[in-house]
Fold:
Amino acid sequence: MIELDDVVVTAWSPDPAGGADRVVRLLGPVTLRLAERRIAVVGANGSGKSTLARLLNGLVLPSSGTVRVDGLDTATDGAAVRQRVGFVFTDPNAQIVLPTPLEDVALSLRRRFPDKVERLEAARAALRRFGLGERADVSVHALSGGQRQLLAIAAVLAVEPAVLVCDEPTTLLDLRWRRVVDDLLADLDQQVVVVTHDLDAARRADRVLVVDDGLVVYDGDPHEAVAHYEALMGQAGVP
Structure:
């Protein structure tokens, strides 16, 4: 269970007119209980949806309020939370740090498998699971954009988190790879929270949150939530 209680996120912002810095609200107040298996988060760019996603594994900490995952507070139990909550970024290059897929996944497994031979065997198994077994030893630069995103997901899932949070994981992908990644996320055993601009994917979730101006302005049935978001964007003059 993911719980957000009266969460607000603020940041200092310089005054463009040269005056004193000021505090701006990025998100909140937000109170949520997230238990569904598939949750989508939609909203315009800059609405606060990525801030919301980053709260769930402690990449962003609340300025006030609390975020808990299975009773663990992200502010005080950050390491334990990150063991339970994996995070996938929009750009896989932000996550891939080693020269080959095998080395990159093995890096994620270094604590789980201290023995190098066992670690490499587990890494190869993880890559085979996502259709990358034959690419294990090639340069990551030889992978397509879709394959790199699969690699990023494989490295996160190799440690078997209970929850997977994805921040626009298909935004940089073409239609074919978007479908591959969407289908993969839909079939996972983990609870998945995905920030997305793909409204068709959002409609297939169990629950959809609509974020606007740092607030959750709609929360509920996927089709109704997407319709609310489309109406909201139409009122804002966004095509």
